[in-house]
Amino acid sequence: MADEPTDVRSFLSRSPEQTEALGACLGEVLEAGAVLALCGDLGSGKTCFARGVARGLGVEEPVTSPTFALLATYEGRLPLQHFDAWMEGRGRALLADGAGDCLGAEGVAVIEWAERVEEWLPREHLRVELNHNNARERLLTLAAWGAAPGRSCAGAWLRALEVRGGAVELSGSAGP
Asked: pTM here?
C-alpha cells in the first residue's frame, strides 16, 4: 500500500439522509474494480453510506449490514459485493477463503470495518473514514490511495457533489 493518499477530502454530513446521498453520489461515478474501504466507530454511518453507494449503482433491493452473513452481493449497473469485517477473525477467514478475489474484480467492493482487514486492501482503493461530529452530524474523510484511477474517481465524486450541493466540503488537499 502507498505511504500517503493521493487525494484527501473532508465533508460534513448533517443527517443520515445526507450521508446516504453522499454515498449515492459516489456510487454513480464508481467504475469496475473500485474498492471502497469504510472505517469508523459503531453507529458512525458506514452502512448508511454503503446503502447510498448501492443506490448510486442502481441496486433496487434493500441494503443492510452483512454483519452475520459477512458478504452480501447485489446487482446494479455494476455488481456490488458488500463485506462486513466486524466479527474478529471471520472477515479475515472469508477473504482468505477466496472472497478477496472480489477486490478489484469486475464489480465494486464495499468493505465495512475495513481497518480490521487492512492487509487485504489493494494498493488502489478509496478509504472513507466516518466519525461522529455530534449526535446527528458525521465528518466523512475520503482518501484516494494508489495511482490515478483513485484520484479521478475522487475528482468525479467531487464534481458530482458540486452539481448537487447539500454537503459542505470542509477541506481538501490534492496529493502529488
From this structure: 0.81
